[in-house]
Design a protein that fits this description.
68% of the residues lie in helices and 11% in strands. The chain is an alpha+beta fold. A hairpin with a 4-residue loop joins strand 2 (164-173) and strand 3 (178-188).
Length: 348
């Protein structure tokens, strides 16, 4: 199973953490009220008071209560996913429930105490730093790293159950380009104190982000396909011209080699350079970074190969043509990898 799938399974858990980082709250607080609990979250973060924080946030419930529903949401989102893959993901989710929730809890506690996700230990592989790195990666995968708090719209006690309350938290998701209102669930504990225990609609947030990323990915594939198709046509025409020059001339003649060198440098190499620049100018969404890097690598090797061919047409050395051929073979192998990656991304 890919790392991308594994990260996807745990992504939704982190949506719950948004409320911990984003409560900048100016309501008139009253003791023993949901408003007061929200205010205490702000104060506990400002003072790095883990004890107070744990009084108003039930982290275990916050993480555990939404784990199952998020996994189901991720599975439902991919309509093309075969049943055997769904079963595999479900099994993986159950195996990873305890370590993942434990790791996220440790990362949250570290944030409350230190106010940052930056490494606190000089030992890179220390447990605390591993939790921080994992949390930072998950925040990025979930879309929360690009989510900004806007305001608290309301905090209301449930009309049918005065032990429950909902806080509506407005946030802006940069990738999607629109606001989302989180419905934060608060509940009274055994001491009659209000605690944050969950996020009712975090699954909707993850689906919103995933849908936007899918649309952006489709646009990237469409835009880059047009670029590549246009430049592939130029390269094919140049290769035909290369053959025509050879058919009427001879590599033993200087004028033939000069014509070929001009074609390689002024047409083939230049076209790969222009292709590379056009690819650089395309907006690359999350999920397309690997493909984009692969394509840039193909351009670089093709440019190097053209340089070597042009050099060989002048120096006639065996090592020079060998270098050119080696790079060309690398390009062909990477192009096959590119086709497989594009097909997999388009299918998913």
């Amino acid at each position: 199973m890919s790392d991308r799938t594994k990260y996807g399974i745990i992504t939704g858990i982190v949506a719950l953490i948004l409320i911990i980082f984003c409560f900048v709250f100016n309501f008139n607080s009253r003791a023993n009220s949901p408003d007061y609990a929200v205010k205490m979250i702000e104060e506990s973060l400002e003072k790095h008071d883990k004890t107070k924080f744990n009084t108003v946030v039930d982290v275990d419930s916050l993480l555990d209560s939404s784990y199952e529903s998020f996994v189901e949401g991720m599975i439902d989102f991919d309509k093309t996913m075969p049943n055997e893959i769904k079963d595999s993901i479900s099994n993986f989710a159950q195996i990873m429930r305890v370590p993942m929730t434990s790791s996220m809890k440790a990362a949250i506690e570290n944030y409350v105490e230190n106010g940052t996700f930056e490494e606190q230990s000089t030992e890179k592989n220390s447990p605390s730093n591993q939790n921080i790195l994992a949390a930072s990666e998950i925040l990025d995968q979930s879309g929360l790293s690009k989510t900004e708090f806007r305001q608290v719209d309301s905090v209301n006690i449930d009309k049918e159950n005065d032990n429950l309350a909902i806080a509506e938290i407005r946030a802006y998701q940069q990738e999607v380009g629109r606001e989302f209102i989180f419905e934060i669930l608060l509940s009274k504990n055994e001491n009659n104190d209000w605690q944050v225990v969950g996020v009712k609609n975090f699954r909707n947030f993850i689906n919103m982000v995933n849908q936007s990323r899918r649309e952006q990915l489709n646009k990237y594939l469409e835009d880059t396909a047009a670029i590549i198709s246009r430049h592939d046509k130029t390269i094919r025409e140049a290769e035909q011209k290369y053959g025509s020059i050879l058919s009427i001339g001879s590599l033993g003649k200087d004028n033939t080699r000069d014509d070929l060198k001009t074609l390689v440098t002024d047409v083939i190499k230049k076209d790969w350079e222009v292709r590379k620049q056009e690819l650089f100018n395309v907006s690359v969404p999350k999920g397309a970074e690997a493909l984009q890097n692969l394509r840039i690598k193909i351009c670089d090797l093709s440019i190097e190969s053209a340089d070597s061919y042009a050099k060989w047409l002048s120096d006639k050395k065996a090592q020079t043509i060998k270098d050119a051929e080696d790079k060309r073979k690398q390009v062909q192998a990477l192009m096959e990898e590119e086709k497989l990656l594009v097909a997999r991304m388009a299918k998913n």
